């Protein structure tokens, strides 16, 4: 599976962005899909995950109610991260990953996409 993240950019606090992670390969629906983020000098941190079918989602506490993860297992084979009510502390490079569980054993990673939230 190859992953290509996009959608990052500069937005003012309170604004919204939607990140996309396009997956190639016919096994997309076999994987949990996960979004992480990382700021300079810090470890990569979990943001959100979605189950293979999309029925179950998991979020970092600080983004609950503001971020929504979703996926398209049909035509587009893409996972999305809708980010609303953005805060300056959401500024980071965001990465998508594919794994056999939502919290570990990630097998594939996409390149990052930078999100900058100005105050």
Folded structure, characterized:
With 119 residues, the chain is an all-beta fold. It has no helices and eleven strands. The strands form two sheets. Strands 2, 4, 5, 6, 9, 10 and 11 form a seven-stranded mixed beta sheet that branches. A hairpin with a 6-residue loop joins strand 9 and strand 10.
How far from one another are the termini?
Answer: 37 Å
Mean pLDDT: 95
Q: H/E element string?
A: EEEEEEEEEEE
Number of strands: 11
Computed Rg: 13 Å
Are there runs of 5+ residues with pLDDT below 50, and where? Answer: none
**Can you count the helices?**
0
The share of residues in helices is under 10%
Shape: globular
Biggest sheet record: 7 strands, mixed
Q: Which descriptors would you attach to this protein?
A:
seven-stranded mixed beta sheet, 119 residues, single chain, mainly beta
Summarize the structure.
With 119 residues, the protein is mostly beta strands. It is built from no helices and eleven strands.
Give the topology:
Elements: E1 2-6, E2 9-12, E3 17-24, E4 32-38, E5 45-50, E6 57-59, E7 67-72, E8 78-83, E9 92-99, E10 106-109, E11 113-118
Parallel strand pairs: 2-11
Antiparallel strand pairs: 1-3, 3-8, 4-5, 4-9, 5-6, 7-8, 9-10, 9-11
